[in-house]
Design a protein that fits this description.
Blueprint: E1 2-8, H1 14-27, E2 32-36, H2 43-46, H3 55-66, H4 80-92, E3 94-96, E4 99-103, H5 115-130, E5 138-142, H6 154-161, E6 164-171, H7 175-189, E7 196-204, H8 209-223, E8 227-231, H9 235-243, H10 254-265
Parallel strand pairs: 1-5, 1-6, 2-4, 2-5, 6-7, 7-8
Antiparallel strand pairs: 3-4
Helix pairs in contact: 1-10, 3-4, 4-5, 5-6
């Protein structure tokens, strides 16, 4: 099993590269547990599956049941944890060919903190990872922008249960994306005793070979970040995004070919 985490500054293309990675594993006949931990929740669109419920929606529902704004449905002999897990598995987990998807989402404005959403998502993911004969070959995690996910328990749980092989920090060639990469690496260094593997930069939408060489050298010398590879900009992905199309079956994507070569070079 390989566990891949996509992190970085907002707007660098984390979600697109995570989706292309799911496609890569799918084409190899492997099944991925895919976790969209970005509250903005766009991964389902690229993976071409309908999204009806998120963990945030379930938090809202249980909150209203407990406050009698909705009729409580939890059986009296079932714990809160078991009840919530059952709702996530029934209503949030999307089962598709080649991957399953859990989407974090966000709570309503009545709950002004993401803490319960992350807490219950962590509980559900922890139970999945502990399940007998877990049916997944790989795990792909699309993080929220910046470092917000690292103080939460979700990545810690994955690192404890199965280990994280690669944390890809997506870089768009800007100094801001490199600064964010440094902050992410600092957060990972705090996770002593947890199984975090290689932390690598992954450059997105950089086409010119001379610019690629400059960025690779600058990232290594000034930031100590090794660049695993470069993914070129792709008109097919841009056009598809404008039309609301997914990328699982779209042909002729040079970004996918670039990412495929990078993943293959890492033995994935």
């Amino acid at each position: 099993m390989a566990v891949l985490v996509f992190s970085g500054k907002g707007g660098t293309g984390k979600t697109t590269l995570a989706a292309l990675t799911v496609r890569y594993f799918y084409e190899k006949g492997k099944v991925s547990l895919t976790l969209d931990m970005d509250p903005d929740a766009h991964l389902f669109k690229l993976l071409e599956v309908p999204l009806e419920q998120t963990v945030g929606n379930i938090v809202d529902r249980v909150h209203k049941e407990k406050n009698f704004e909705l009729e409580p449905r939890k059986p009296v002999d079932v714990s809160d944890a078991e009840y919530f897990y059952s709702l996530v598995m029934r209503d949030v987990l999307i089962e598709s060919e080649g991957f399953d998807l859990i989407t974090l989402g966000k709570p309503s404005s009545e709950i002004d903190c993401y803490c319960p959403v992350f807490y219950w998502a962590d509980l559900a993911i922890s139970k999945i990872l502990r399940s007998y004969k877990m049916p997944y070959d790989h795990i792909v995690v699309d993080c929220d922008p910046g470092t917000e996910i690292f103080p939460r328990r979700i990545l810690d749980t994955i690192a404890e249960k199965v280990g994280i092989d690669y944390v890809f920090i997506i870089i768009d060639g800007s100094r801001m994306s490199l600064d964010t990469a440094i902050e992410i690496r600092k957060e990972i260094k705090k996770k002593e005793g947890l199984r975090f593997g290689e932390v690598l930069g992954l450059c997105n939408r950089i086409d010119d070979p001379k610019m690629q060489a400059i960025i690779k050298e600058f990232a290594a010398s000034e930031y100590g970040i090794n660049i695993a590879g470069f993914v070129r900009s792709d008109i097919g992905i841009i056009e598809g995004a404008l039309k609301g199309e997914g990328i699982l079956k779209k042909t002729g994507l040079r970004a996918f070919e670039d990412l495929k070569k990078i993943l293959q070079s890492l033995g994935l």
